[in-house]
């Protein structure tokens, strides 16, 4: 296992950010949670692309901001693909009255938390994930 975070852009209009900061931050999240950083890919796409994945793999016919695919092969290996709809993140940021990048980083750490085994299928899980998101966002340099 090794620590490698890749960023892929399936859309042309995306305001890039300093990935060296997010690499260090997300690696720290994984380690603090007891995981071993592996191969991670963040794939930034549009609503249509993410909706097609949601339909195909999860049988959900709804828009979402993030879908995570776990590829960790060994216990503790945190590896996977995290697909993020930039359109959803932008709309959510506007609705919440926050900056785009603040919501983007929340969604990024949300995907990591899924790879670490957290779920948001019920109210208790959603609250636990939100607390973790808030905590880890407070550590972002």
Describe the structure.
The chain is of the alpha/beta class and 141 residues long. It has a single domain, classed as 3-Layer(aba) Sandwich (Collagenase (Catalytic Domain)), CATH 3.40.390.30. Helices cover 49% and strands 21% of the residues. It has five helices and four strands. It has helices at 19-32, 47-58, 86-96, 100-115, 123-138, and strands at 4-9, 36-45, 66-70, 77-85.
CATH class: Alpha Beta
Query: How many H/I helical runs?
Result: 5
Compute the CA-based radius of gyration: 14 Å
- What's the structural domain tally? 1
Termini separation (Å)? 26 Å
Query: Which regions have little confidence, pLDDT < 50, spanning 5+ residues?
Result: none
Strand order of the largest sheet: 1-2-4-3
Q: What profile does the largest beta sheet have?
A: 4 strands, mixed
What's the CATH H-level homologous superfamily? Metalloproteases ("zincins"), catalytic domain
Shape: globular
Mean pLDDT metric: 92
Number of strands: 4
CATH architecture: 3-Layer(aba) Sandwich
Give the helices and strands, then pairings.
Blueprint: E1 4-9, H1 19-32, E2 36-45, H2 47-58, E3 66-70, E4 77-85, H3 86-96, H4 100-115, H5 123-138
Parallel strand pairs: 1-2, 2-4
Antiparallel strand pairs: 3-4
Attribute tags:
single chain, 141 residues, alpha/beta, four-stranded mixed sheet, 4 strands
Summarize the structure.
This protein is α/β, with parallel strands linked by helices and 141 residues long.
